[in-house]
Amino acid sequence: PDPPGRYADSAGGFCYQESAQLVSVTRNRFIHWTTSGDTLELVEESLDINLLNNAIRLKIQNCSLLPGGVHVCETQNLIIILILTNQTVHRLVLPHPARMYRSELITEGQMQSVFTDIGKVNFRDPSNYHMIPSIPGLASNSTASAAWLSSDGEALFALPSASGGIFVLKLPPHDGHGIVSVVELKQSSVMQRLLTGWMPTAIRGDQGPSDLPVSLSVHCLEHDAFLFALCQDHKLRMWSYKDQMCLMVADLLEFVPVNKDLRLAAGTGHRLRLAYSQSLGLYLGVYMHAPKRGQFCVFQLVSTESNRYSLDHISSLFTSQVSASATLLGEVGWDIKGVVGRVSLEEVNIAGQWNQVFVQPLPEEEVTIRDDQDPRVSEQYRGERIMDLTWDELKKEVTLAVENELQGSVTEYEVSQEEFRQLQVEFWSKFYACCLQYQEALSCPLALHLNPYTNMVCLLKKGFLSFLVPCSLVDHLYLLPDAHLLTEDDSTIFDDLEMSRDVVCLVQCLRLIGESISMEMAFIMEMACSRLQPPEKAAEQILEDLIANDTENVMEDIHSKLQEIRNPIHAIGVLIREMDYEMELEMERAQPLNVRMNLSQLYGSGTAVTVVCRGVCKMATTRFLICRDLLILQQLLLRLGDMILGGGQLFQSQQDLLHRTSPLLLSYYLISWASQCLASDVPVDTLESNLQHLSVLELTDTTALTPHKLVSSPQTIVELFFQEVSRKHIISHLFSQPNTSLSETSLNWPHLITAIAADLLSLLWPSNPGFLFPECLMGSCQYTQLQEYIRLLQPWCHVNVGSCRFLMGRCYLVMGEGHKALDCFCQAASEVGKEEFLDRLIRAEDGEMASTPRLQYYDKVLRLLDVIGLPELVIQLATLAITEAADDWRSQATLRTCIFKHHLDLGHNSQAYEALTQNPDSSRQLDCLRQLVVVLCERSQLQDLVEFPYVNLHNEVVGIIESRARAVDLMTHNYYELLYAFHIYRHNYRKAGTVMFEYGMRLGREVRTLRGLQKQGNCYLAAINCLRLIRPEYAWIVQPASGAVYERPGASPKRSHDGECPAVPSKSLIEILELEDLEKECMLAHIRLTLAQHDPSTAAVAGSSSPEEMVTLLVQAGLFDTAVSLCQTFKLPLTPVFEGLAFKCIKLQFGGEAAQAEAWDWLAANQLSSVITTKESSATDEAWRLLASYLDRYKSQNHLYHHCVINKLLSHGVPLPNWLINSYKKVDAAELLRLYLNYALLEEAVDLVLEYMDALLGKGHEHFGIERPLSAIAPMVWLPYSAIDQLLQALGENTATHHCSVSTSPRCCHPKSRARKEIPPPPR
C-alpha cells in the first residue's frame, strides 16, 4: 500500500492528430509520461528523427500528482499540457511542432522537441495554475480526474467532489483575461435521497457518497462536453457540462452475470475508457473490478430524440486476474495483467478471445562465466543506459567502481591468480545482481499507450518504453503456451486443415524437445555453430543426451505426437519454407525527388532503429531454437525410421530436410549473433583513411558506405546497418508502388513493422545474392566484426564467396597482415564476373579502356595496395596478373610499368631496369626510363645508371639525360657529369668532350660565382683530355649554340608582349671547335678564375665575358701580366693594357696614402724585372717601373704603345717622365712633337725641336736615334718640317706671351732653308 497522501505511480501517452500522415511534421511523433509522487517526467519520442531536448522532469513541491492526472491537448498552433495534483491544477503552453518547423518536408536527422523552450515557461504565472478550492473540496478516497480544452481555449479540470458528484474548475484562455470559476455537477437532493435509499448501508459507510466517481472520462463536442463518471455504486453517469445536467444513469451490474457480491461492495477498482470514431460513433470500455473474476464490457452510446441517451451492449469478456489498466480501440481491448515474476500481455480479438502477447523476459539471474572469459566482459554491458553518460564513460565508471570495491576487500598483500579471479566473479556478480534489481524495478508496467491513427501499441513501464510488434506465424505457434496451442483455430494457420493439424502437432513435438533441453545441451549447439562444427552432429549428441536422461518419458510423448502427424515430411517442409528468407529481392523503382525526400527520414530515429533490430533479433533467436529442436527431431525421425516415415521417405528426409534445416539454423545463428554484436567506435583518422581506400575502389558513391557516426550508447552492427544502409532500401521498396499519393498514404504500424522486419531479414540473409550488410561493415570500419562474420559464414554458405574473400583481404590489410590479404584477393579473383559486388567493383568508367573483368579487378586491387603503401604485394600481384594479360599488350604495359615503379621505390634497380626493358609500350618505356634516370640521380646511385646496358635504348637515355641537364639547376644536379661518365664508360670521348664543353659554357653564363668558374675550368680541362684521347684528325667537337634555349617536349610556346609567337630564327652555321680552340677557352676560363679570386666582385660578370671584355676587366683589377698573356693568346692589341697601366700611374701620382697602400696589392700580382726594396721606393715608383718595363719588353709597329701611353699622360695633364721622353725621342721624335702640339705644349715642343735640330747637326744625335748627323758627305736626313711650321705659326700667334721667338734664332733659319723636303729616317 502507498503511504498516506501519496498516490500510485502512473503513466500515459498522447499522439499527434497527424502522426499517421506521411507528409507531416508530427509524423510518428508522440509524448509519454510517468508520474511518481510529486514528480512528472515527460518525454517526446519520434520514430523518424532524433529529437533534441526531448525529456523534462517537473517537480511540484508539497503536492502529489493524481494517477492519470496528465492530459495533453493539441490545437493548430499549441500543445497544452494540463496537470492535476491533490492541491493544484496547472497548464503548460508549448508551441506546436508545425510552428517550430515550418516545412512539411523533413530531411534532417535531428530536430528540436516541443520541450526545447520549457525553460522560458513561467510556472508561477497565476493565469496558468490555481489551487483546488477547499469548498467543495477534493474527495480524499478517489483519484479520478479529467481535463480538456473548450472550443474557446479555456482549460477545464474535472475532479471528484468531497460531497459527492463532480466539480469542474475552469481557467480562462492563456492569452486572454478572465477569472477562475468552479462549477459543481450534482444531482438534486430528491434524486440523491432516492439513490441513497436504494444503496446498501455498507457502501454509504466510510467510502463516502455513493455517486463518488472512481473513474472519469470526457468526450468533447463543438460547444459542450460530455462527462462520463463511473461511480462506486457501480453506475455510469453522463453529464452535460454546458447544461450542468445528468443526461444518463446506467446500472452496469445489469451486465454482470453474478452480481450479488458486487452490490454489497464499493466499486473502487472500476475503470472507464472512451473511443470515438466518426463512422461508428462513441464507444465506452468498462472494466468491472471483482475480487475473483473481472469483466470487460464494451458499449455504444445511443442517442434518441429529446436528448435521451442509453447504452447498447456490444460484448463482454472475463478475466480471472487483477487488472491494472486497460485501453480500447474500436472492438479490440488490451489488458495488462500482473503475473508473478514477469509480465504477460494479452489481446482481445474480435471473437471475444484472449490472444497471447509475448514480452521480452528479464535477463537471466545468473550469468555463466567460462574459464576462458574475463568476468568483466559479460552481459551487464548490454542493458539499458542508466546514466547520463556516454557508453564508454559509463563502462569506465562502472569498471573503476567495481575494481575499487574489489581492491578494498583484499586484506592480504598477495593473492593467487585463482583467488583473484574468484573475487572478480563475486564482485561482478554482485554488480550484475544490482543491475537486475534496478531493471526489474524500472520494468514495472504502468499503462498501455495506443496510437489510434497508426495502431501502434506501447507498454509504458516505470523506467522504459516497450513497443508491441506483430508475431509471425511460426514464432507464434512455438511461443504459445500449451493450453492456448490446443485451442488454436486450425483454420487460421493454413487453408488445408489437415496440414494445419500436422504443423500444430509438429510444433508440439518441438516444444517438448525445447523444454527438455538443459543449458548444457543448448550450449553444445551454440558452440558447434561458433566453432564451425556440423550442427547435425551436435543435434545427434543432444538427442543421445535427451534419451539417456529421459526420466519423464518425454520421448514417448514425442513418439505418440509424431504418430498423430499424417505427413511429417511435408509438415517439416512447410515449417522450413515459412522460416526461409532466401529470395531474389526486387529492385526498387526510381522515385521522384519529393517522394525520396519525404521518405528519407521515415523510421530513421534511434528509437525506431532499436525497435526494428531488437524485433529481428528476437525473431532470429526464436527461430534458431526452432531449427535446433527441428534438427533434433529429424535425428529422432532417422532413428525411428520406417515406424514413422515409411521406407521411401527416409532417404528424402536424410538428403533434403537435414540439408535444408542445417543452413537455416546457421543463418539464424549468424543473424542472432550480429544482432547482439556491438559496433566499435571509429576514430576520425581511421574513417578518413578508410574513405581514401574506398575512393580508390570507387565504392564511395554506394549507399552502403556512409561513414559510421560516433554514438554515445551501444549500437549493434545490425542497428548500424539498418540506420545507415538498409532502412533506405526497405522504405523505398515498401513505397515503390506507382500512382500512390504520399499525402493520401496513412501509416499502419503493425503492417509496416512486419514488412520492415521481413525485408531486413532478407537483406541480412546470408544465402541471398545481396551483399549490403558485409559491405556496410567494411564501409563503417567494423573490421573485427566483419572478420568474425565471414568466419562464421565461410564453411557452409556458397553465395558471395569471392566477395567475402575480398572483404577478408581488406580486413587483413587494416590489421597489417598484408600477405594474408594478398592470398584472399587472389582467391576472390576466380569469382569475378559471377557476383554482384565484384561486378560493381570492376565497372568501367566512361571512356575507360575495356579489358577482361579479371584484369579490371586486379587493377583495382593494385591501386588499393599502392595507396596503402605495400609495394612488395603490388609486385607480386602484378606479376600474377601478367599471366592473365598474355594477349593484351596494353594491360601488359600497365602492369610492367607498375612493377617497374615499385621495384624502383624499393631500391631494386636491376629488377626495375629489367621490367622497363620488357615493357611492350614504347611511350611507357620512355616514361619509365626517364623516371629511372631522375630517381637514381636523386639517390646518387650513378654507377648503376651508367653501367646498365640500355640495349636499343642508348639514344633515348642520352636524350633524357641531356634534356634533364638543360632543364634543371646546374649547381644542385649533376646530369652533365653523369652524361660525361656515361660516354666515358662507353669510350665515346668526343661526346664526352662535347658534354663537358657545353657544361662549361652554361656554367659561365648561368652560375656567376667563384665556384661556378672553378667548375667551368675543370669542365674545359676534361673536354681537352677527351679530345687528346682521340686521333688528331677526329679531335674536334661541334660548338654548342651560345645562349640557346633548348626546347623541351610539351613546353608552351614563348610569346611577345602582344601575344604573338616570335618568328623562328634561321639556323646558324655549324661551328667546329678543334683542340686548339678548346685550349684557348680553357685558358680564358683559368684567367676568369684568376680575376675572380683576385676580386670576387667581378665573378658575376666574368663568367661569360669575351676575351676583349676580359682584358678590360683584368686591367681594371691591375692584373696586367694576365691581361698581356690573354692578349697574346687571342692575338689582341696591348693598347688597353698600356692605357690602363698609364692611368693607374696617373692615379698614384696624384693619389694619397690610401691609394698607395691599395696599389701594392695589384703590383704584387704582376712580375717586375727587378724589385727595389729600399725605403725610397714607393708604389708610384714601382708602377712607373712596371710601365717602363712593359714598354721595353713589348715592341709594336710604329711604337704604338709609347704613343698611347704619352697620349694618356698628356690627356690628363701629367708631365711626361724624362725616361719616357728620352725613350720616345730615340724612336719617334716627330710623333712626340706632334703630341706636344696637340696638347699645346709649345715650350716643350720648342725645346724638342731645338734639341732635334742640334742632333741633326751632330750634337747629341745618339739621343734621337740618329746614326749619322747632317754633313756634306752624309745622306739626307728627315726633318718634320710640317710640325715645325705648325709650331712657328703657334709661336707667332703667341709672341706676346712667350719670352723667346724662334724667328730670331739663326739656328732655326738655317736648317729650314737647307732642308725643303722630308727625308725618310735612317734605318736603325
From TrEMBL:
InterPro entries: Beta-prop_Nup120_160, Nucleoporin_Nup160, NUP160_helical, TPR_NUP160_C, TPR_NUP160_M. Residues 29-325, 385-474 form the Nucleoporin Nup120/160 beta-propeller domain. Residues 496-721 form the NUP160 helical domain. Signal peptide: none annotated. Residues 765-1029 form the NUP160 middle TPR domain. Pfam families: Beta-prop_Nup120_160, NUP160_helical, TPR_NUP160_120_M, TPR_Nup160_C. Its main location: nucleus. One of its GO terms (molecular function) is structural constituent of nuclear pore. It is found in: Nucleus. Keywords: Nucleus, Transport. This is Nucleoporin 160. It comes from Gopherus evgoodei (Goodes thornscrub tortoise).
